[in-house]
Amino acid sequence: MTYMTEGLVLTDTQGTVAFINHRLSKMLGYPPEQILGKIWLDM
């Protein structure tokens, strides 16, 4: 999952980002550390 060519994000039931792969973090322009723990819909 980490190095797949598609972007992938996994959230908990409240929408908090629990996992983001490298492809999606590159697509968004932020390192995973800045996205983990954030509310996905707020982004």
UniProtKB/TrEMBL annotation:
Spans traversing the lipid bilayer: none
A Pfam family hit: PAS
One GO process term, biological-process aspect: regulation of DNA-templated transcription
Domain PAS: 1-43
InterPro entries documented for this protein: PAS (IPR000014), PAS-like_dom_sf (IPR035965), PAS_fold (IPR013767)
Gene3D superfamilies in the cross-refs: PAS domain
Signal peptide start and end residues: none
Protein name: PAS domain-containing protein
Provenance organism: Desulfotignum phosphitoxidans DSM 13687
